[in-house]
Write a structure and sequence with these properties.
With 243 residues, this protein is α/β, with parallel strands linked by helices. Helix content is 40%, strand content 22%. Helix 6 links the parallel strand 7 and strand 8 (212-218). Helix 2 packs across helix 3 and helix 2 (76-99) packs parallel to helix 5 (158-169).
């Protein structure tokens, strides 16, 4: 029987889902821009059905932590503020799961903004063995440029500090932190929200540095998480646990 409950970890509202029987792995799951933890319950239940304990936090400006006009051009800096806040809060969330009975392989996963976050957390948290990024990007600086171009955002003075903060933690420049770690990149071939080019270039860099990386592109798929995508993620998790 799957157990579910709403909890708070160091002031971060989270949704926690765990299998009733033996836990074989732990997943920290990040939602995307304009989403919330409650909207990820089905995905968390799927993972729990396969034996994974799942913690889904609300990102800054989302869910119980407030809301903004996500479609406004003025909201763009808040996107990166949410990503950077996720990284700052990750150590407490990882510790919470580790301090419980879950002495199991630890993974991080997410969609869109959550997929971007997941690859950052993989770099910063030593306890995390691998990451699944769905329609995300591991080259933050390149994606930042592409976001501004796609949305025709005029340059704002505040972007200077924002980009500097992004560059300090950009996974693309921290490949050496991924030795003995593993990455799965899942992307829709027709995604018009997060440009897949930055993700592909990130995958190329990981392979050049002999990092364990697999990338699957779903031709014709937009900015969505499908049943096939979740199935591939579960199969990958199961395989990495056995390695």
């Amino acid at each position: 029987m799957i157990n579910e409950k709403r909890i708070t970890v160091d002031s971060v509202p989270c949704f926690f889902v765990e299998p009733g029987d033996c836990v074989k792995g732990t997943v920290l799951f990040y939602h995307g821009w304009s989403s919330a933890k409650e909207l990820q319950v089905l995905r968390a239940r799927i993972l729990a059905a396969y034996g994974y304990a799942v913690l889904v936090p609300d990102a800054l400006y989302h869910g119980e932590r407030g809301s903004i006009d996500y479609d406004s051009k003025a909201a763009y800096p808040f996107f990166w503020q949410a990503v950077l806040a996720n990284l700052q809060e990750a150590p407490q969330l990882v510790s919470y799961m580790q301090e419980r009975r879950f002495k199991t392989p630890f993974f991080v996963m997410g969609h869109s903004m959550g997929g971007i976050t997941a690859l950052g957390v993989l770099v910063t948290e030593k306890a995390v063995r691998g990451a699944v990024s769905m329609n995300g990007s591991g080259w933050w600086n390149e994606s930042e440029r592409r976001f501004r171009a796609a949305h025709k955002l005029d340059w704002q003075p505040e972007y200077t500090d924002m980009i500097a903060a992004i560059d300090r933690v950009d996974p693309y420049y921290k490949v050496d932190s991924l030795r003995k770690k593993t990455v799965l990149l899942l992307s829709g071939g027709a995604d018009d929200v997060v440009d897949g080019a930055a993700q592909a270039m990130y995958a190329d860099k990981l392979r050049q540095h002999h990092i364990d990386c697999e990338m699957i592109t779903y031709e014709g798929l937009g900015h969505f998480v499908t049943t096939n995508m979740m199935g591939d993620a579960v199969q990958w998790l199961d395989k990495k646990i056995k390695e």
